[in-house]
Every structure is written in C-alpha cells, then in structure tokens.
Amino acid sequence: MVNWAETVQRLRRERQQTQTQFAASLGTTQATVSRWESGRQGPDREQSRAIVALAAASPNAPGGFYALPGEVPWPAPGMSDHLVATEIPGPPGRIRDLPILGHAEAGEDGTFLDNGTVTGYAGRPSNLVGVANSYALIVHNSSMRPRYEPREIVEVDPNIPVQPNDYVVVQTTDDRAFIKLLRRRTQRAIILEQYNPPKEIHLDPGEVAAMHLIVGAHRVYR
Q1: Residue 43 has pLDDT above 50, yes or no
Q2: Which is the most buried residue in 2, 30, 78, 122, by most CB within 10 A?
Q3: Helix, strand, or coil here: 213?
Q4: Are 123 and 213 contained in the same domain?
C-alpha cells in the first residue's frame, strides 16, 4: 500500500512547490495537502489518481521510481495501489450486487460520498439479501483499527435503528461519511468514539443527515 504522506512530500519537493502550489495543481487546498503529509488523511480515489498522474510524468521516475539527489529511490504509486471498486469480486459464494457508495474514512475528516453515486459493487452477505437499500463503503485509514482495517468493505443496513455502542456510518449534511462507535445521543450532541488516536467526537445533531448500522465487514479480495 502506498505511503501517501511520504509520496506526497517527495513529489512536492521534487516539483519545487509549496503546499499551496501543489494543492492548486491537484485542484484541492493547502490544508488538505498538509493533512496528507502529516498522515492524518489520505487522498480520495480521484485525488490519488491525480497524484499517480503527476508521479508518472516526473522526469525523475524512470522505471516507476523517483528520488531527489542523495535520496533512496521511492516507488511511484501505480494504479494497482488504488481501491478500484469495480475490480472487487467479493468473497467466494457471494453475489456481487451490494452497491458501494464512495469510500468512507474512519478518521475525523471523513470523505465525500459523491452524492450517493454507486462506484462499484461488493459481495452481498446473506443477512442483506433482499434488503434493497443496503450499501457498502470502503475503509481508507486505520483510526478504527483493529475493528476496521484499511481496504476493508463495511456492509450497512440503514433499516435497523442504531443504539449506543453500535458501530455506525455517520453521514453529515455536507455529504461526508465517517465510521465510528456511537457512544450516546442527546438533544444537543451526538457523541462518537474513534480508536486511533483515542478520542471522543461531538457533532451537533443538525450536522448529521443519517446514522446507519454496520452489520458486517470483509476484506477486499482480488
């Protein structure tokens, strides 16, 4: 798996760009690039594809490797490093018809769900057979490890009411998704927990569009 923090830092330095300039070349913000380089967040699917394109065009990347003078060559990210939903057949014996709605970050920053666009299909578990509005998300980072690992697919049933101590997908009104442990709800706050680093996250109920129950997870099979 690509170490995006080091990849972005090396590629940006090789291009002799500030974080702001590098962000502009990818159509994002300096704050986002800063989160990538600190390891607090990874690029989403489209952003990672854009980084791949920059790395491939690098004059210092012959044979798929690039480096600054005096540095150990670093492998440029390739398309095989991406979570391409349409390439996922799912575990043996499952029908691959569970829609994947974007990619979910386990971390606090979340990720956008592309307005509900289906990006691929995962294997449907038996407990979701016949559940028409069930869906799946791909986990990107390790902030809910060891419960959910990067590259896992979580399976979601939006019909079952969530309760405290359930693992949930939280969808916000700005169309982000988070994987968290629901601790409690009050009229003033929704209190969530993440594992790495350990912390509580408080959201205003007005920020939350939906909370859906995670009913299963499986690894990405290739």
Answers
A1: yes
A2: 122
A3: strand
A4: yes
Residue 72 has pLDDT above 70, yes or no: no
pLDDT band at 160 (very low <50, low <70, confident <90, very high): very high
Domain range enclosing 49: 4-81
CA distances from 84 to 12, 48, 103, 188 (A): 25, 11, 10, 39
Pairwise CA distance, residues 67 & 139, whole Å? 30
Q: How would you class 178 by CB atoms within 10 Å of its CB: exposed for 0-12, middle for 13-18, buried for 19 or more?
A: buried
pLDDT for the residue 126: 87
Residue 66 has pLDDT above 60, yes or no: no
CATH of the domain at 213: 2.10.109.10
Kindly state the DSSP code that residue 203 receives in the 8-state scheme. E
Place of tokens 């980072």: 141
**For the whole model, what pTM was predicted?**
0.57
Residue 74 phi/psi, 5-degree rounding, is -120, 130
Local structure of 162: helix, strand or coil: coil
